[in-house]
Amino acid sequence: MSKRKNVAEKESLRLFENRALEALTHVHPIVPLVFWSPVVMYFLGQAAGEEDLGAAALGVIALVAFASWTFVEYVAHRFLFHFNARSAASKYLVFLFHGVHHADSQDKTRLVMPPAGAIFIMSLLWWIFSLVVPGDWLEAFMAFFIVAYLCYDYTHYAVHHFDLQSSVGRYLKRHHMQHHFRDPNRNFGVSSPLWDWVFRSDIPVHRARGSEWGSVR
User: Fold this and answer.
1) Confidence at residue 211, expressed as pLDDT on a 0 to 100 scale
2) Quick one: 194 exposed, middle or buried, by C-beta within 10 A (0-12, 13-18, 19+)?
3) How far is CA 48 from CA 56, 134, 140, 180, in A?
4) Phi and psi at residue 114, in whole multiples of 5°?
5) Nearest alpha carbon to residue 136 among 60, 77, 200
6) What is the rounded distance in angstroms from the CA atom of residue 138 to the CA atom of residue 123?
7) What is the DSSP letter of 66?
8) How many angstroms separate the CA atoms of 126 and 120, rounded?
9) Calpha distance 186→217 (Å, rounded)
10) Angle, vertex CA 171, rays to CA 69 and CA 31, nearest 5
């Protein structure tokens, strides 16, 4: 094992004594793309083939799916990942799923979601969406929803580890760094600030000015 790898492992907070379980909490950033791309292609193939959905219909479904993702992302981050836990067990679960990221926000192996957790969550969402999304739209909807999730995953990685130069990139970086270093109970959107604006959970501009957001590259 290389010296570099040993240093990286020492910098990671250990969540499980069991090595196999601990390994499942770490993931290389490329893994979600490699894992989910075939799923997306299969769903889109089914939608275009068996469901015979044209470009216009797929475009509408894509817009709905992306908007749905931003809402799910916001709700999960605000009400699940920042759940006001009372018991020791619930506090541990909150730390396991999200608190560890706030405790060590620069750990590159814990910035994208491991497939083990993502499969369970996507399966649950598939069942929920199947109750409200028309059957002939469901596979296309889930394909674009997964694409939106991947955009979130890599946006999250980028705002933590890249020196973003575009106006959009710098805004998203500042928005998320303020969540980490100024007020963890605000700025819950990562891939989009939309729902923070809607529900007024964003840090007001006059409070958001400052240099601490830029200290993380």
Assistant:
1) 44
2) middle
3) 11, 15, 8, 42
4) -60, 140
5) 60
6) 13
7) H
8) 10
9) 21
10) 50
Spell out the alpha helix ranges (H) of 19-137: 19-24, 31-49, 55-75, 88-94, 100-103, 115-130
- Residue 144 tokens, joined: 């674009």
pTM value surpassing 0.70: yes
> Token digits for 191?
């891939």
Question: Which of the 8 DSSP states describes residue 96?
Answer: I
Extract long-range pairs of 169-173: CB within 8 Å, 24+ residues apart: 173/213, 173/214
| Mean pLDDT in consecutive groups of 10 residues from the start of the chain, 217 residues | 43 74 81 95 87 86 97 94 82 74 75 83 94 93 97 94 91 94 93 96 69 44
DSSP 8-state symbol, 119: H
CA 173 to chain centre: 14
Q: Encoding tokens for residue 188?
A: 């819950």
- Output DSSP code: residue 164: -
13 vs 172: CA distance, rounded Å: 26
